[in-house]
Amino acid sequence: AMAEKAGFKHFMLKEIYEQPQAILNTFRGRLDPETGQVKIPEIILSPEEIKSLNKICILACGTSYHAGLVGKYLFERLVRLPVEVELGSEFRYRDFLIDENTLVIPISQSGETADTLASLRRAREAGARAVAICNVLGSTITRESDGTIYTHAGPEIGVASTKAFTSQLTALLLLVLYFGEIRGTLSEKERKRIAKALLKVPYQLEKLIEKLHPDIKELSYQYQKKRHFLYLGRNILFPIALEGALKLKEISYIHAEGYAAGEMKHGPIALIDEEMPVVALAPQNHHVYEKMISNIEEVRSRKGNIFSLGTEGDGTLKRVSQHVLELPACDWEVSPIIYTVPLQLLAYEVAVRRGCDVDQPRNLAKSVTVE
Ligand code: G6P
């Protein structure tokens, strides 16, 4: 079993470490490093069909749903198309509004999740086209879609999704670059900037894991006994706060909530005390950075314990936090990928300290094929 795990103690850790390669595999052969142009003929849609779209509807469950939420921020900013993101279990029983000009994007690691599949079927009955983002070749969701962007992350064994998620984020970004060119919403300069940012990600992640894993492991000793965690993010990192919280609860059984930082005042601020760690995602170059800092100040003035993730060399963030994980400066479009990985490592290390069965958490299944 150790051999299958390539010397890692758990599949989850192996898969966290595989992310630079998985992301490379997702964009390789699709993204031209010189021009930033993307080729994904497997999505089938013609340029005319892409131009005539009036809405995107993303369907997913669990971690894949969080990738979908990131997709909304990307598509609405860079492609200027309205995006709905819906949980499979909700969409399938809802009176949704969909027509032939709606593109449905089911996102699923396994391609077999029952609720996502049922939603896809209903959407197609209503006339929508479907392009899946999926990791498993020939799975049901890919067979029932018009086209599929395979993530090529390799088999994911750990129940808690890691490399499949960051590969989904990569696939979404490729789709955005592709649609942005065809629909004329992305200038060549912008496209090249984003492509350059994405091309750098595998290398940045490799360095980041190497540098931060020992620190995160060290910190996990202080955090393993905590009973509640709050994760805060804004804008494109709000879904990453949700994902960080989900990872922790899935494998460590610690109660964790992800929140849009601006919503804190409408509830979770009542819970702040010396006990509950608040994980704050605060990259310096995001337009909501100042807003994140004021949210952190609000937590601090209530004696909260701030564990923040931000940009290397950010002195302000250091001053207001108990602990800071310093991440490389990166563009907005790739920041969800960069900020996810340390949160995976944090969940992993805390769960290991608590003696949890990281690869097979209780009551959870890798793929939920029944309702
Ligand atoms: C299960 C898994 C999660 C996964 C979710 C959706 O709950 O434990 O890790 O995110 O299903 O799975 P899918 O294969 O559709 O991405």
From TrEMBL:
Cellular component, GO annotation: cytosol
Encoding gene (name): glmS
Keywords: Aminotransferase, Cytoplasm, Glutamine amidotransferase, Repeat, Transferase
Catalytic-site annotation from UniProt: K366 (for fru-6p isomerization activity)
EC number(s) recorded for this UniProt protein: 2.6.1.16
Organism (species): Thermodesulfatator indicus (strain DSM 15286 / JCM 11887 / CIR29812)
Keyword Cytoplasm belongs to the record: yes
Catalytic activity: D-fructose 6-phosphate + L-glutamine = D-glucosamine 6-phosphate + L-glutamate
GO MF annotations in UniProt: carbohydrate derivative binding; glutamine-fructose-6-phosphate transaminase (isomerizing) activity
Domain SIS: 46-185, 219-361
Quaternary assembly: Homodimer.
Biological function: Catalyzes the first step in hexosamine metabolism, converting fructose-6P into glucosamine-6P using glutamine as a nitrogen source.
Subcellular location: Cytoplasm
Major enzyme class: transferase
GO biological process: amino sugar biosynthetic process; carbohydrate metabolic process; fructose 6-phosphate metabolic process; protein N-linked glycosylation; UDP-N-acetylglucosamine metabolic process
Major place of residence: cytoplasm
Protein name: Glutamine--fructose-6-phosphate aminotransferase [isomerizing]
